[in-house]
Design goal:
signal, Allene_oxi_cyc_Dirigent, binds 2-acetamido-2-deoxy-beta-D-glucopyranose, AOC barrel-like, 9 strands
Length: 184
């Protein structure tokens, strides 16, 4: 190795070591709270609710924003109510806000990217973020829950979705979601 390179590596090493020492003992890190997360601080929560995807009528909660000639690429923005029961007029516990897109050329698999924004009881104001693949014709679809806010900070888990009702005539759907998450 050429001396210059050796020297450069050595000074890089020195600056890394001093950076670590400064971070460990410097005032910088002391400005932050030092609450430690332990495995015991994790809670597990299971939620069950119904997702109403209303594409028909005067007040749709899902609208196509991209409508290619083929179905592939269709993209919809949703603000779908989440309720305690299958009936659309049952108690609303939150909304699913985000989008879904037909991201498969060969079957009906959607990309789901949405936040569940809860408005119910102690979950009011808290959210869960779901990002996953949803092959809508499968009986049960599993999607990852990749994060959360409020009482669901640090959330990770999964959602199981199954279609309860699908109206072939107008495309409206009611989907049951069972969500299991670990969180702080
Ligand atoms: C870092 O701080 C601790 C306690 O405040 C001290 O005992 C230790 O010697 C310090 N280390 C360095 C490398 O300055
Ligand atoms: C949820 O929180 C919002 C804002 O804090 C408040 O206006 C609303 O009344 C709360 N709803 C419920 C059902 O607690
Ligand atoms: C969702 O939870 C309910 C109640 O525990 C259960 O009956 C149902 O089978 C679950 N659905 C799925 C897809 O696991």
């Amino acid at each position: 190795m050429a001396p210059l390179q050796t020297f450069t590596l050595f000074s890089l090493y020195l600056s890394l070591v001093s950076a670590i020492v400064i971070t460990a003992n410097g005032s910088f890190s002391h400005h932050f709270a030092t609450t430690k997360l332990t495995p015991n601080a994790q809670k597990m929560t299971r939620l069950h609710f119904y997702f109403h995807d209303i594409v028909s009528g005067k007040h749709p909660t899902a609208i196509a924003i991209i409508r290619p000639k083929s179905a592939f690429g269709m993209t919809a923005i949703v603000d779908d109510p989440l309720t305690l029961d299958t009936k659309p007029r049952s108690k609303v516990v939150g909304r699913a806000q985000g989008l879904y897109a037909l991201a498969s050329k060969h079957n009906k698999a959607l990309l789901m990217a949405m936040n569940f924004a809860f408005t119910y009881g102690k979950y009011n104001g808290s959210t869960l973020s779901v990002l996953g693949r949803n092959p809508v014709l499968d009986a049960v679809r599993e999607m990852p829950v990749i994060g959360g806010s409020g009482v669901f900070r640090f959330a990770r888990g999964y959602a199981l979705a199954n279609t309860v009702r699908f109206n072939l005539r107008n495309g409206d759907a009611v989907i049951r979601y069972n969500v299991t998450i670990m969180h702080g």
